[in-house]
Amino acid sequence: MLKKNDIRIRDPFILSDRDSNTYYLYGTTDENVWNGPATGFDAYKSSDLKNWEGPYQVFRPDAGFWADQHFWAPEVFYHSDQYYMFASFKADGKCRGTQILISDNPLGPFQPLTEEPVTPRDWECLDGTLFIDEHKNPWLIFCHEWLQVHDGEICAVRLASDFKTAIGDPIVLIKASDAEWTIPVRGETEYVTDGPFLHRIQSGILLMLWSSRSARGYAVGIARSLTGTIDGPWIHEEQPLMDEDGGHGMLFKTFKNELMLTIHTPNQTPNERPVFLLVEEQNGKLVVII
């Protein structure tokens, strides 16, 4: 058995399977996440978030797969009796994109749903996540990367019901510099967005967790939709939810029905570890308790 401090992982994501009383932990797991050839994605499983089994090889590309580097931030969702993985991939001469993979098992093996990413092929994109709206329509929420647009954006595009294609053009939900707490990562006008995750609180308010750089380092902020719908408008909370060199957050419910936040911290390779923090809703806002 492993403890969470034994698991080196970036961009942690938890899938809770209540039928089997099992938590599945996914994330960026390659030894060299920034340079060199990519290997794939590994996952871990646990019944208590303390003792973990693994790693399990959940994705390894076949010889014809288009990408060979920067295999980042896999997220796995159970939808229509299948498991779908949303993950970022990159190759020389090709833009980074979010590709969707599919499996009938949470531990894979996952196979690409299509030959190409679902994000625009001339956009540098990353950190795609799934959102199902009030009409049961699926949406891809993703980052349009600061390396291309300078002021990083988080965008949304409708997905076809089979997740194979995008419907229409992406819309911009937020820009990183719009938040009061962000600072540039380079120069005076270059701001990062990464790790979007949408969550509707008990009052019906739709929140978006996302990460950027604050004066204290890597941080998780929150934006909220004034309409409760994906197209907003979105406003930023003045202060980040977490501001202690940890980020790329997502929320999940434990089997005790507790709301938990997971992030990786610190944000320095190779020391990243998953962290699980209890969160409560207080007066329409999220507050980290532990």
UniProtKB/TrEMBL annotation:
Pathway: Glycan metabolism; L-arabinan degradation
Keywords annotated in UniProt: Glycosidase, Hydrolase
InterPro entries the record matches: GH43_arabinanases, Glyco_hydro_43, Glyco_hydro_beta-prop_sf
Top-rank taxon: Bacteria
One Pfam family cited in the UniProt record for this chain: Glyco_hydro_43
GO biological process: carbohydrate metabolic process
GO molecular function terms noted in the UniProt entry: hydrolase activity, hydrolyzing O-glycosyl compounds
Family: Belongs to the glycosyl hydrolase 43 family.
Protein name, as recorded: Glycosyl hydrolase family 43
Annotated source species: Neobacillus bataviensis
Phylogenetic lineage: Bacteria, Bacillati, Bacillota, Bacilli, Bacillales
